Design the sequence.
């Protein structure tokens, strides 16, 4: 039986908890949360215990996994505490808010010899997995260009998002998902150009980003978390190759809290005939959590969501913020 401590009792802690409870021989030992009411609610929902801090949970529970779903500016101290206790760590993206913190996390994990995976969800989301399969398998021929989008109204599930010191803005809150996926698809980025809108606190909350890859592919990213009230959470992916293309469009409620109401379509365009390839029916969050648990059970390092991959996604997202501020292209 693997025992898990979930750090963060908000939307993402709930989402991860729902995935763990579907797995055999996995027990949620407790929730940690800054807000007493919320962490108590989660403990009741999952028939487990609640703790005011990670230290309190570690003192009381013999856990195998620490799942960190707290605001990104807390990543370093959370990882440091979990690693010092010798626990395997699942860390919500982004890996950190700056490259110095990412390097600290890398050094902490390596020095302690613990397993860490950064939760870059799109590597497990069925439509994105299929897109990777089609591109890597040559079904589109040589890829030439792509676009990706992640757009929503101001998130009401995390009040700290507007603060650049705690979130990093839309590039790190939302688009780091798509950046990581396109890095996985097309290789190392070469140059980033961006323009957008800043909020009153200085966070870039709406961005248009162009990333040029060493492979020759150019990808345009569109991210926003300032759409008007009622605008559905929207994500899109388009890839064009010499021999065809693909498109994925997803629209749901305010966030992903009601996937059953989502409008979703994945289309492959090849030989003049649009088709809808068969997709995995495994939920992306469940696939992600299952993969990490399997790695922990087997004692092997995850090959997805590595420190190196996550740091490259962070580096690219930070280059977008820098380009938007300077009005100039930034090398990655």
Sequence:
């Amino acid at each position: 039986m693997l025992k898990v401590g979930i750090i963060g009792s908000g939307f993402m802690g709930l989402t991860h908890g729902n995935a763990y409870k579907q797995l055999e021989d996995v027990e949620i030992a407790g929730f940690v949360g800054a807000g007493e009411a919320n962490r108590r609610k989660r403990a009741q929902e999952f028939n487990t215990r609640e703790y005011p801090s990670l230290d309190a949970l570690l003192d009381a529970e013999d856990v195998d996994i620490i799942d960190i779903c707290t605001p990104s500016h807390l990543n370093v101290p959370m990882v440091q505490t979990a690693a010092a206790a010798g626990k395997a760590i699942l860390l919500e993206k982004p890996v950190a808010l700056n490259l110095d913190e990412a390097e600290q996390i890398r050094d902490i994990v390596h020095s302690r010899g613990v397993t860490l995976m950064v939760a870059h969800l799109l590597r497990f989301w069925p439509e994105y997995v299929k897109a990777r399969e089609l591109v890597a398998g040559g079904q589109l021929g040589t890829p030439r260009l792509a676009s990706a989008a992640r757009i929503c109204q101001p998130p009401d599930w995390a009040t700290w998002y507007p603060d650049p010191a705690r979130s990093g803005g839309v590039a790190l809150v939302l688009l780091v998902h798509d950046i990581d996926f396109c890095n996985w698809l097309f290789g190392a980025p070469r140059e980033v150009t961006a323009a957008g809108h800043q909020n009153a606190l200085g966070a870039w909350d709406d961005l248009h980003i162009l990333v040029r890859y060493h492979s020759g592919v150019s990808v345009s990213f569109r991210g926003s978390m300032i759409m008007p009230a009622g605008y559905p959470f929207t994500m899109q992916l388009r890839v064009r190759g010499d021999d065809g293309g693909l498109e994925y469009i997803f629209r749901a409620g305010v966030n992903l809290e009601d996937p059953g109401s989502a409008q979703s379509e994945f289309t492959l365009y090849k030989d003049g005939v649009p088709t809808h390839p068969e997709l995995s029916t495994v939920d992306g969050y469940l696939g992600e959590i299952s993969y990490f648990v399997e790695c922990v059970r087997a004692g092997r390092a995850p090959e997805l969501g590595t420190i190196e991959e996550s740091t490259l996604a962070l580096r690219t997202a930070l280059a977008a913020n820098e380009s938007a501020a300077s009005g100039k292209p930034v090398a990655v």
